[in-house]
Each structure stands twice: as C-alpha cells, then as structure tokens.
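Inverse folding, one chain.
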C-alpha cells in the first residue's frame, strides 16, 4: 500500500499529476484544493496517497495534507460515493467548509458539488455528520485560532462553550445565530440559555 510520496513534480493538469520518485513516474489524481498547494513543475512535492486496487486498474489519489486524505476516505465509505465524487467534493469545499456544511446539515451547498443530488447530499449528512465531528471536531477551533482577531468575540464564546463540554458544531451553530455585536460574555450567556433549553 502506497501511503506517501515525495518527488519532482513533472506535470500537473487537473485532476491528474505526474510525480517522479527516484526515476519512477507515479500518476495520481487530486482535488483542486491540493492543486492550489502544489509547487511549480520541476520542483519537489510531497503528497499523502490513497491507493485503490481494482481488477482492471490500480489508482492513486494524492492530497496535500493528511486531513484531506482522511476526509476523502470518509467520503468514499458512504454508499453511492466513489472516488470521483469524493474528489469533486474536496475540489469544491475546503475541509473547514465541508465540516461546517455537515454540522449545519446544509444540503443546498452539497448539491452545488458536481455529481451530488439531493438524495446523495442527505445520505452524506446522515452517514458522515457524527463521524466527522468525532474525528475532525477540533478543525473548527484550529481554523478560528488561525483567523486571529476576526470575529474574536464570537470565537472566544465558541471556545468557552466547548471548554464547558458542548460540541464544537453545536456551539458554533448557536453563536452564529446571535447578535454579532455582543461581547463574548453576552454571547456566552445567551448561547448557554439556548443550549440549556436544547434549542439548537
């Protein structure tokens, strides 16, 4: 099983790329989010890899981060979602957007992905929401930390709610519905009233 490759990037024509690893050329397919992170042709590139072995082919899919690869693997576990659709999802939505989309049960956003209709979108949410939250729930907090001072009161409120034991998705959903001009203390107070009443 090939899990990771490092070599010289020979070609990149989305969704395919060619990587020279010690004189062996590996052809991989990758989502656009990975293509945005790739260096110029002729430079060194490192990719996390998912390998699919079929009777008629051996396919390699490359990702710029381990997180992207794990999201891809979670997507293809869903009935009716193959590698092509999973790549389309990760090409259309960033990891953060996908996690938030699942948390909010945003079927309309999922339906904007090529190859995904309403039934597939519903199946994705049903089968993936809890699993993604359990495996990637910390991503939202990491993203907020990276955003620095943007919406700092809202971010502080969400982090405080999470530290009190609430799920990141629930905390983010409730705080997002509140007046964003409130202080972090007022946001926390109002969010706690909502959460304690189970109004999510």
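Residues assigned per position:
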């Amino acid at each position: 099983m090939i899990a990771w490759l490092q070599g010289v990037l020979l070609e990149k024509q989305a969704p395919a790329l060619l990587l020279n690893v010690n004189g062996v050329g590996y052809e991989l397919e990758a989502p656009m989010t990975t293509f945005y992170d790739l260096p110029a042709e002729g430079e060194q590139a490192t990719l996390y890899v998912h390998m699919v072995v079929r009777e008629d082919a051996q396919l390699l899919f490359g990702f710029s981060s381990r997180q992207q690869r794990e999201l891809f693997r979670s997507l293809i576990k869903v009935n009716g979602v193959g590698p092509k659709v999973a790549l389309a999802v990760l090409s259309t939505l960033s990891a953060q957007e996908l996690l938030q989309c699942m948390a909010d049960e945003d079927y309309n956003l999922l339906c904007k992905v090529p190859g995904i209709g309403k039934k597939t979108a519903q199946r994705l949410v049903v089968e993936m929401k809890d699993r993604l939250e359990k495996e990637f729930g910390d991503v939202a907090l990491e993203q907020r930390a990276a955003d620095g001072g943007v919406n700092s009161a809202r971010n502080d409120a969400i982090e405080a709610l999470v530290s009190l034991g609430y799920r990141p998705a629930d905390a983010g959903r409730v705080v997002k519905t509140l007046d964003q001009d409130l202080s972090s203390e007022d946001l926390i107070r109002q969010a706690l009233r909502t959460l304690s009443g189970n109004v999510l």
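DSSP finds ten helices and five strands in the chain. The CA atoms of residues 76 and 83 lie 6 Å apart.
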